[in-house]
Amino acid sequence: MYEKRADGRVRCSLCAHRCLIADEGRGVCQVRENRGGTLYTLVYGRVVARSVDPIEKKPLFHFSPGSTAYSIATPGCNFRCRWCQNADISQMVREQDLILGDEVAPREIVAAAQQAGCRSVAYTYTEPSLFQRRHSDGAPTFL
Question: What percentage of the chain reaches a pLDDT higher than 70?
């Protein structure tokens, strides 16, 4: 989900900002970092918020009405919405240079969702593209 440049920079294609990131630099979201021409995520497996929510709270129309979603979020965001009710987690990386949260494997998220009786998992509270985690060659990034 990024393109290497001859000068060592990378072009991130995970969101509409399409950041051009210098070596050792970060994108607008502050959770993607260029390390020697390879784009890494700083938040993979780092869950800062989780909750069981009614599906109707999500921006989905007629998707499993009456069910619940296991909602999770990582720190960081590629927006700076003045009205954001989740600014404490969405802006923590930008404003405090903090990446908090528990390390949780995907299988643990699925198990927690099933145990809570949820029919779905929602990446929410911050901009969902932050959860993208693969290199352009398809290899997963684990930090």
Answer: 89
